[in-house]
Amino acid sequence: MTNYPNSTRRFIALSGWEGAGKSQGVNHISKKLGFFILPEIARLMFPINDSILRKPLGELSELTFSGYVTGHHVCVANRIEKAVFDRCIIDPLAYQALYAPNKQLCFDGIQRYIDRFNETYSQSHLYDDIVLLRHPKDASFIKSVVFADEDRQYSHSVEQYLADARRFETCFMDCMDKLTGVAKRVIYVNAFPENPDVLRDLTLIAAGLDH
């Protein structure tokens, strides 16, 4: 059984649509606060299989879900007290709901896993906070920055990007509503450029100083 003396554990996950600035936020939190980083699973797999990010999003979700579960288990089993996750177990579920609803993983089975995991490690939730970064809405920023990431080729127009982002965020919260014991809080934070202070906001949340 893993115990965290003095309740010092902080597990923070940054989630959101592509281009919302999750990886930048994760790296900033780690640099400022010394948090251990759990990278985005798809990008972690990229050096092994350089076509992984070009797989259909429904198929990619199945491949990455177990990775998020394993990463979380590694942190808890090794008594890592402060960790920031680039996406969480809800992200692949939201992608499946969006792109492959007929292949949706069993929520009853996922709930049983969450309950068993939390009981085993004497914790109430997998994460302390999940931050859902709201997608950027500025067309010029999307074209010049978001679409500059050559690894991701899912969006081909600003209009499609915005529509997909809104649908993903809705699916994400729908999936959260179906499960308990995932996070103590889900916090909405606007991304850059709409929120020029987003890195400061994320750091305060990770430090538990946003109240």
TrEMBL record:
UniProt name for this protein: NadR/Ttd14 AAA domain-containing protein
A Pfam family assignment: AAA_28
Highest classification ranks of the organism: Bacteria, Pseudomonadati, Pseudomonadota, Gammaproteobacteria, Alteromonadales
Residues annotated as domain NadR/Ttd14 AAA: 12-144
Domain of life: Bacteria
